[in-house]
User: What shape does this take?
Amino acid sequence: MTVRKRLSLLLGLLAALTLLAAGCGGKKQAAASSSGAQFVRSDALAFVSVDTDFGSSQWKQLDSLASKFPGRDKAIESLKKSIAGQGVDFDSDIKPALGSELDFAVAGGATLNDTKAIGLLQPGDEGKFKALVDKENKAQPDSKSVYRKLSDGWYAIASTQADIDQVLKGSNPPLSDESLYKDALAKQPSDALAKAYVNGPKLGEVVQKAIEARGNGLSDSTTSGLQKLDFVSASLSAEDDGVRLHGAVQGSGSESLLGSGDYASKLLGETPSDAFAFLTFKVGKNTASGLGSVTAPFEQTLGVSLQDVLALLENENAIYVRPGAVIPEFAAIFQPNDTSKGMATLIKIANRLAASGGATVTGGAEKTLSFGTQFQLHFGVKDGKIVLTNNAAGISGVGSPSQSLADSADFQEAEKAAGLPSDTGGFLYLDLKNTIPLIEGFAGLAGSKIPAEVTGNLRPLRSFLEWSAGSGNSRTFDAFLEIK
Assistant: This one.
């Protein structure tokens, strides 16, 4: 998607500077009169709202999380100085110019180059807002911003007045009355630092135009999932134990994006408790049809059919990484309905990699793909599953741990903080608390040292969890960064 090179330098600055609020505090401002969505055309491609009421409960919660990082105050002061160096002061120039909400709206056009974006806000001090725009325009004479006063103290700001005309509703119904928009926002929490809405059909049109403009010959099936969406919505919010990104997807294309059906991971119980990374996933039944003409180069590269690869991944699969003697140990576990056919697929891929990369494939029932003497991959069938690992003991060293990751106190803490459901469409877990010291150890072995200031600011990061869930044509996705 191409928007004018400069949506507005001012808008980018305002959006970035909201990060300062976590350390600047402020009194609660009067709530915005409705939302900028009341001025935007109903078929807008996207709409994003940012909470700029720095006295709100969300900003207070974010400030509480930020206070856990020892470098917080230094980073804020550094950013303030950087802004001051551009002739703009956050406290006296920007804060008064902002209201309690800053919105961005995007509307498509006949071509990609016709896609336009504007900003909308209800300034706390109109004089300060106009002075800030004038100051920025003098500093950036080649990329000036223009603004237009709307009603009830709201302003639209963009690169040109024509951009504003294209995105505003004019005499037509507004986005705020559009049922899709209302349904999308209803999927999000009432309080959030930011919320976003994307019109599904319009998104599909934009992606299709991008593909056609590149002339790469991809078929319509490549974007069929996007073209069958009603909407995508998302929010970013601060919570007691971390920061959450929550999203919702609705429409018959949601399966192509986030999978179909939820399940309880059984392979979590076969993963060692010291694993610092774990991924469980299934491949959707409609994956092949969604790949379109990408199928041919995929098959040419790997030397196997796409259907054979998908058959290997048709049930729950898992990948985990844990500490190793020298380098981390990883294992991938697959559960195809036909393990013999799955092994044949892996052997073909290994032979193709060996032929193109100077490696060798050896072994009987258990195969080994060797890249010299430095790195080896072992794969074979164990307990009705196909296992691929770099474990020096081979596939016999994988599975049946004395304590599984599901029993780990660190995983259970992360699971509780994030609110991970028992059944998901797959999830990714990263144990940041134990990974950071591991990285420090590797740095030491390499003869370098990570600055204490950096490691100190990484310590509050405990874990990261990402997953999808839902049923039918309605799916959700979450990503949670635990901070303590």
The radius of gyration is 26 Å. The first strand starts at residue 46 and ends at 51.
